[in-house]
Each structure stands twice: as structure tokens, then as C-alpha cells.
Amino acid sequence: MHIVDRRLNPSGKSLENRQRFLRRAKTLVQGAVKKASQDRDIKDVLEGGEVTIPLDGMNEPRFHREGGVRDRVLPGNKKFVEGDILQRPQSKGGGGNGAGEGDGEDAFRFVLSRDEFVDIFLDDLELPDLSKRKLAEVENEGLRRAGYTTSGSPANISVSRTVRRAMARRVALQRPRPEVIAQLEAELDHCSDDRRLELVAEIERLKSKIKRIPFIDPIDIRYRRFETVPKPVAQAVMFCLMDVSGSMSEHMKDLAKRFYMLLYVFLTRRYKKVEIVFIRHTDRAEEVDEQTFFHGPASGGTLVSSALETMHEIVQSRFRPADWNIYAAQASDGDNSYADSDRTGALLRDAILPVSQFFAYLEVGESGGHPFEMAESSLWTLYQRLRNEGEPLSMRKVNDRSEIFPVFHDLFQRRTGKEIAP
């Protein structure tokens, strides 16, 4: 989101304060969008809508003079004398029990389009630790210097090139120098009458020639030229691993699908070269398309290692780690076969995490409970142990729809350096 204030800087208000006000307004809008997103379905988020920000934060700062001694004359006072106690005036904002009188202030409401809403919502999100390994075939467009041109925007004028061409033109046309004319004018004071006539004629000729050969001519002006060129971008792949076994209730599956749908919107809107691989699993895993992943029915036992094995096989066959940035997001209720824990841990430690830029685990639970009051599942305990050993795992728990958006922002918010969300 970009707010551009093209108004002139008014008297009494500094530009720095105005810029600070614009940054605060942008922060308020972003907070309002995130708050409005918590109670919406994914499809409603994509449609934009009305958001509300408080008027208190929209007051533009200004300087006030305080202190000093002031004398005031208040005419017409026949009711009070010095020392009387004045009663507090009744509220006129309409906030009491009665109807109230006077003017009040409401919150500032406005409507955002679909693109504006989604862009603001995704403004501070990014894939963590995205590095340029092998450059992707699909490329963005960038600008590159492409010499000079005789027309263009005044902001792109090349002063050095213009002055150089003007100087070359003046030398080629033998434009008289001001120093020569100054010398001739100085000689007028010491010359004879015959010589004076010659000098005056020569000075007039040189001045006339100077007028015919301007210092800067329109044909001298050159503008910096830019052209659009393909710009390579890094390529990445996101693996979406979802548990669809019998232990996942409809509420849990709904939470997982909301998280993945939000992730899908984020990747498709922010990145041009990101492959998305959908893997769902019960006691066996399969790669599916987007429609099947979000809407296809499935049920059965639970073997988490089957999803990790499928991901490992796909990485080996299609996404060479030296060429691709590999990401993974897994959603599950935390249930897993006891006999499968060792296999799951070994796959993560030895095959998945060493080649991954980022691995996020989302554990979904039944509605009504606090995420941190849930009993630790077998999968959560396993992943927690791996994270304590130093493996780059990010783990979160959600029980309710309103928790999806804050957790998603927490996992994919923009960070600096190699910082990984814990």
C-alpha cells in the first residue's frame, strides 16, 4: 500500500510531521484490514469490503502555544462571583441514558476494493529466507539504462551529456568567448580614433554572433533512456501437506483448508515463480490437484511419514535442492501411529529439513479450547523435540477460525536476516 500526499506543505506544519501522520494512517488501515479479516471467510476476504478506523488516530499533528500569562475579559457574567464552585456540564455527545444533544464523532469508514484489501493484507508478508539459487525461466520485467534520447521527461535530463554537446557545438561554430569581448572593450580606453572604430565594429560583430549561437540550444538536450528488460527471479516450491484421516473432524479440516487457502492466495498474488504441490494423506499419501485438495473427500488411518516420503520423492525427481527454494507447510490434528514416530522423525531430520528453507507445522484442534491448554499430541511432542535439537521448525496451534489470520501473519511476516519464527 502506498499513500502519496501531493498537497503543498502548508504554513505552520512541517513536512516531517506530515510524513509521520501518513505512516500512522497506513498502520491504522493495515490494522483495520487484519481485524476485519479475522471474522470473514476466505472468499469474503478476496471480495474486499468496508473497514473502520478510529478518528482519534487521524488527527494531524500541529504545534500549539502553551504557558505564559494571559488576561481575559468575559463580559456579561451576572451569575457567578469569584470562589463559586461550577458544576460539571452535562455530556452532549449522546453517550448517556438520554438522547443527548450536540455533535459527536463516529469512526471513519471507507470501502476498499478487492485488490486494495488483499494488497494491504499481504503487504508485510514474504517467504522467509528466499535466496537466488538457480534463476527461474519465468522472469519479471525490470528497467535498464539504454543510452540517451532527444525527448523525455524533464526529470531524466542528463546535465553532463547536455553540457558536453553544447560545448562541442559552440566550439565547432566558433562562438566568441566573453573574455575576448572584455579584452577588446578594455582596449577602447587606450586606442586612437581610427583603431576605436575598428574595435567598436569588431565588438558589435562578436556580440551579434554570440546572440546567433546560444549557450544551450534545444538540439543539445539529451535525456537518459531506459528500456524494459527481463529480470531473472528466484524459483521456489511450496509443499502443502494436509492430514485428512478419520481423526480429523470437519471443524479441524475446515481450519486446515482455511490456512492453505490463505497460503495459496498469498503465493499466487505475491510471487510469479512459485510452484505449489498439494499432498494429502491418511495412512498413505498422494499428490493431488487443487480441486481435490480442498474439496475431495477422504478418510482412513494416519501415517505422517507417508506424506513426508511422498514429498521427499517429489523433491528428488522434480525439484533439485541446489536449484530450488523449498518450503513446506503441514496441517494435522497431531495424531500419528506410535510405530511411525521414529520414521517420521528420521525423514524430517535427514531428508526434509536439510533441503528446506522453511517448514511450518500447524496443529488444529476442536473449537472452544485455548491452543496452549491442549494436551500435547504425539506429533507435537516429536516436532518439539526436533526443534529443541536446533532443527528449523515453526509450530503453531489453532482452535478457532479467528486464530487463522494472526497465526498466518506470525508465520510469514517479513523478517530480517536468518531469523526463523519459533
Automatic annotation (TrEMBL):
Annotated region (Disordered), positions in chain: 83-102
SUPFAM superfamilies the record matches: vWA-like
Domain of life: Bacteria
InterPro entries for this protein: UPF0229 (IPR006698), vWFA_dom_sf (IPR036465)
Ranges of biased composition (kind: Gly residues): 92-101
Family named by the database record: Belongs to the UPF0229 family.
Official protein name in the record: UPF0229 protein RPMA_25400
Source species: Tardiphaga alba
